[in-house]
Amino acid sequence: MRTGQSAVTGTDERTAMNNSLFEDFLPDGGKSDLFAKLDCLAHALQEERHAGVGGLGILNLSGASPVANLQGHDGKTRPAIMLGSNSYLNLTKHPNVVAAARAALDAYGYGAGAVSLYAGITDLHHALETAISRFYRTEASILFPSGYGANVGVISALCGPGDVVINDAANHASILDGGVLSRAEIKVYPHNNMEGLERVLRRLPDSQAGRLIVTDGVFSMHGDLAPLDRIVALARRYGARVMVDDAHGIGIVGPTGRGTAEAFGVMPEVDIHVAMLSKAPGGLGGFAAGSAKLVQYLRLYARTYFFSTALPAPVCAGLLEVFKLFEADEAGRAQLLSRVAELKARLLAAGFRIGHSASGIVPLLVGDEALLYAFQKRLFEKGVYANTVTYPAVRRRECRIRFCVMATLSSEELAYAADVIIATGRELGLIGGQSACA
Ligand code: PMP
Question: What is the CATH code of the structural domain delimited by 92-327?
Answer without folding.
Answer: 3.40.640.10
